[in-house]
Design brief:
The chain is 34% helix and 16% strand. The protein is of the alpha+beta class. It has one domain. Strands 2-3-4 form a 3-stranded antiparallel sheet, with no helix packed on it. It has a two-stranded antiparallel sheet with strand order 1-5. Strand 3 and strand 4 form a beta hairpin. The longest helix has 30 residues. It is flat. It comes from Sphingomonas citri. This is HNH endonuclease.
C-alpha cells in the first residue's frame, strides 16, 4: 500500500530495500498468508478461494489445496491483479524488524488491517466532532438544526 506523505517520516530511510527483501527474497514473490503470486492475474471466487495456475488447483484463503465441487458458477469467478505489499504486523511503522514484517497481497493486507482501519475511521470522526465543539458557536449550530 502506498505510504501517505504525512507518515513517510515514520519509516526507515531504507524502506524500499527492506520491503523488497521481505517481498521478493524471503517470500519469493508470493503472499505469505495465502500464497498468491506477485504481479499475476488470479481467478478467485470472492471468498478467499483462488485458482493457482502453476499448480493447476484451487487454494483456500490460507494457501492450502482444496477441492471445489460445484457450488459456484462461471459468472461468480472474478479476476484480480495481485500486488504484494510489506505489512507491519503490529501496525507500528517504526518497528521494521524482519520478524514484524510480512509480504501480503491486497486482500490479506486489508483483512489484517481491518481493525486498525475501523479505529482510524472512529478517531477521525471523533477528532472532527471535537474540533467543531471547540470552534463552532453552539447557537449557530442549534439554529441550523431547528431551521430544517
Amino acid at each position: 500500500m502506498p505510504i501517505r506523505a504525512e507518515n513517510r517520516w515514520l519509516y526507515p530511510i531504507d524502506w524500499e530495500q527492506l520491503s523488497g527483501r521481505i517481498r521478493f527474497e524471503r517470500a519469493g514473490k508470493r503472499c505469505e498468508q495465502c500464497g498468491r503470486p506477485h504481479l499475476q492475474r488470479v481467478a478467485h471466487l470472492g471468498d478467499g478461494r483462488w485458482w493457482d495456475a502453476e499448480a493447476a488447483c484451487w487454494r483456500s484463503d490460507r494457501g492450502k489445496r482444496i477441492a471445489v465441487r460445484g457450488g459456484f458458477t462461471l459468472a461468480s469467478v472474478r479476476v484480480t491483479y495481485v500486488v504484494l505489499a510489506c505489512a507491519h504486523l503490529d501496525h507500528d511503522p517504526g518497528n521494521s524488524a524482519p520478524s514484524n514484517l510480512k509480504a501480503l497481497c491486497q486482500r490479506c493486507h486489508m483483512i489484517h488491517d481491518a481493525a486498525e482501519h475501523r479505529w482510524q475511521r472512529w478517531w477521525n470522526a471523533f477528532r472532527l466532532r471535537a474540533l467543531r465543539d471547540l470552534y463552532e458557536d453552539p447557537r449557530i449550530t442549534r439554529e441550523r438544526h431547528v431551521g430544517r
